[in-house]
Design goal:
The complex is a heterodimer. By secondary structure, chain A is α+β, with helices and mostly antiparallel strands. Chain A has 7 helices and 4 strands. Chain B is α/β, with parallel strands linked by helices. In chain B, strand 5 and strand 6 form a beta hairpin. Classes of the chains: A alpha+beta, B alpha/beta.
Chain lengths: 169, 480
Amino acid sequence: MEKTLPVAHEPEAFALTPERERELADILTRYPNKQAACIPALHLCQAQNGWVSEGVIVFVAERLGLSTAHVKGVVTFYTLFNQHPVGKHQVWVCRTLSCALKGSDAVLNRCEKKLGIHVGETTKDGKVTLRTAECLASCGTAPMMQVDKDYYENLTLQQVDEILDRLTR
Amino acid sequence: MLVRTNYLTKRYTEKDGWKIGPYERDGGYKQARRALGMKRDDLLTEMKAANIRGRGGAGFPMGVKWGFMPWPPKAEKPHYLVINADEGEPGTFKDRTLMELNPHACVEGCIIGCFGIGAHAAYIYVRDELHLSKERLWAAIAEAKAKGYLGNKPFGLDYPVEVYVHTGAGAYICGEETSLLNSLEGKRGEPRLKPPFPAQAGAFGMPSTVNNLETIAAVPTALEMGGDAFSKLSTLHNIKDGGTRLFGVSGHVKTPGIWECAVGLTLRELIYDLGGGVEHGELLGVIPGGSSCPILRPEEIVHAPDEKHVLHPWHGKSVLDVPMGVDTYRALGTMLGTCCAIVLSDKADPVLAFQNLMQFYRHESCGQCTPCREGSAWLNRILTRVVDGKAEMEELDRLHEIANNIMGNTICAFGEGTAMPAMGFIKKFRKELEAYVLSGGKAGTGTLAPDYFPPRGTDAGAAKKGAGAPPAKRAAKPAA
């Protein structure tokens, strides 16, 4: 009997909004070739989609004339590209030495307790993903954490509570 | 010698001091205008005389690096200036302050740099996490463009210059210059074999110069003062380590921060005069310039009886009294690195600090070279066993063996950056490591942050409440 191969999974199509399309066109003017726009383009797509899906990889590859293997290689190399859906807010607690000396473990403990999740997990309501980060260049104002695009420095545990309350409200 | 300066930090505390108005009020962009009208050789002579040593860690003389570029530039091989602002070395936070509070110095430096190496485009590679830095740099570029300082005819002169900001996506290794170039080209940030060096084949296969952001930001000041005068600000002018730079200190000091000082500051001045002294107790050790530099202990004494030795003037003195220079620190067996020190008090556990750093290197190794990928993972694994009290004494020797096997066997300097601090810790904290093994993980203070987790055997009530259980048993899992 003839064996049938499993049907290839067709990735969900992805397209940028017109505004982001214009931004991509602007990015492409900065470099002598299209490949160089790979990382900025992926950032742009992730900003819209929340994570880098198969559809995003196909979109970027086609738009920049690259193979999907190349784009996937890039995505898997860099830690800031989410390879799975993540929460609405990203909380990164810096754990490297300068922050550790100032109590980043206490900050992390408090986050885990308050959110009821472990590092690397997302709250059930999908609001917050908690992760540790390696040195975020804020050593003089340790301990610190990054919430989406904002830095919160010289943290006290009370401030951690307030910040997380705002996110989960 | 402690000499505070404020060429770069003058407007740090001023409201909106980062904008072009205040920058020009203090004489900004005059040097870029002047440079574009200079002869290239004259500019290069000034830059070489300024003795600006690379501020990113390697400490290579900037003027000499510019001189490596092929000359004259060929039309079919455009040159590129690439600025390394992928600040990620643990303990280092100087470039971020420049980008946020003095971005125009970076842009002006790029204009002069482009002219110096024959490039018409500069890429500033900023790590993606630094959102405010990127925003400020783009804003500064837009302001400079609006004034006609960038573009096809900057200052009305016939030398087109464009400056762009390029972002990474969270990889420490992209601070290595060839890996940064790969990342700029839209590839995985894996370091390249050298040669060819970037001056022959760098960004997009074209001749390129990669400079640290602080290095390029020092250029306008150096040009304004004249190379020689700038170099002479330093007390190490005679060993070709000139000018002023940003010094930072973090960890267990009372007032951590960044200060601009003349090169030649000592660690003692940095920790006690600028950093306000050690908090929680006495000084246990200090990592002088980012985590890749081997740790120094205060009881170490300089031994350099030979009169020709670079350290001879400090023979018999404490290492804390040696001026912080690229060559002086290399002679001490450590590195100046990024000039941002991390201070450990005697209440902090050096074994836990060691493990913390090895966890970092394990996470950030790009995985291209086996000795580094496997070695950093094993260093971390064995140290976790030591901390958990499961290790045997012979494993301490294995730590050294693994570190030694990484040295010199990798494509880029990340390998040395992992192995050197590891060997430093093993050598200088051998007793503490042995105590951990002998006691089954119950030696030492058992804490890094005495504010929250009291050292073993002290009153638990002294620590801030609500810190939760000590985290020593947390599985060492990196971010997803």
